[in-house]
């Protein structure tokens, strides 16, 4: 991916997940931004962004981070928000095990408190160990935890599945985590 697209992707993640107000933009309840408004607000802050570049970011995103609505007027992040948005995801039955990638330095704290969502809306889990390793590596020496998702579901804890394949849940109590 070119540096230009990567920078634009990071900018869109920042605006659509965490701080639309930095360019004076408002998202609706479900996290959608009007594309024209997003572009003009970004340009007004001196940010180089065009519809063409935005569409290129969306189509080349390795993790399909963004979605565009049916008539091409709005964009939102598929997951990863720290601001409250209603993604309107229905609870789903998870696979028996899911994985969470973290860094070894967080282990003691996770053993004590379980997995907490921190500033984000949900704890992020994946069905693949490889993805969890990549996610953990962002934070340091990776540690992959196995989560007893089926058991959590059986105990009445809700799971959601984002449009781009990330499993989401509000927290994971220690008793459902396997450290190995
Ligand atoms: C850790 C990326 C101490 C948690 C990825 C993680 C993901 C605790 C960090 C998405 C803890 C939060 C999200 C506890 C959790 N004590 N540390 N009790 N509970 N943690 O970035 O899951 O590329 O907010 O293990 O692919 O790393 O941006 O979450 O290490 O899907 O699209 O606190 O971001 O996607 O870090 O990553 P983050 P995450 P994008």
From TrEMBL:
It holds the Pfam family PTS_2-RNA. InterPro entries: Ptrans_KptA/Tpt1, RNA_2'-PTrans_C, RNA_2'-PTrans_KptA, RNA_2'-PTrans_N. Coiled coil: none annotated. GO terms for molecular function: NAD+ poly-ADP-ribosyltransferase activity; tRNA 2'-phosphotransferase activity. Gene3D superfamilies: 3.20.170.30, RNA 2'-phosphotransferase, Tpt1/KptA family, N-terminal domain. One of its GO terms (biological process) is tRNA splicing, via endonucleolytic cleavage and ligation. Its EC number is 2.7.1.-. Keywords: NAD, Transferase. The keyword Signal does not apply. Belongs to the KptA/TPT1 family. PANTHER family: PUTATIVE PHOSPHOTRANSFERASE, TRNA 2'-PHOSPHOTRANSFERASE 1. Removes the 2'-phosphate from RNA via an intermediate in which the phosphate is ADP-ribosylated by NAD followed by a presumed transesterification to release the RNA and generate ADP-ribose 1''-2''-cyclic phosphate (APPR>P). May function as an ADP-ribosylase. This is Probable RNA 2'-phosphotransferase. The lineage of its organism: Bacteria, Pseudomonadati, Pseudomonadota, Betaproteobacteria, Burkholderiales. The gene is kptA.
């Amino acid at each position: 991916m070119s540096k230009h697209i990567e920078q634009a992707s990071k900018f869109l993640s920042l605006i659509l997940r965490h701080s639309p107000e930095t360019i004076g933009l408002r998202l609706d309840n479900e996290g959608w931004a009007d594309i024209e408004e997003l572009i003009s607000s970004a340009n007004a802050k001196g940010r180089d962004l065009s519809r063409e570049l935005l569409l290129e970011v969306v189509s080349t995103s390795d993790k399909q981070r963004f979605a565009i609505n049916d008539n091409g007027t709005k964009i939102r992040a598929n997951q990863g928000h720290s601001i409250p948005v209603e993604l309107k995801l229905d609870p789903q039955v998870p696979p028996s095990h899911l994985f969470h990638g973290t860094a070894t330095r967080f282990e003691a704290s996770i053993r004590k408190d379980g997995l907490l969502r921190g500033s984000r809306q949900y704890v992020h889990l994946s069905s693949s160990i490889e993805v969890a390793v990549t996610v953990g590596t962002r934070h340091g020496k990776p540690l992959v935890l196995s989560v007893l998702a089926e058991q959590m579901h059986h105990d009445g804890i809700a799971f959601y599945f984002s449009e781009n394949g990330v499993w989401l849940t509000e927290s994971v109590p220690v008793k459902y985590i396997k450290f190995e």
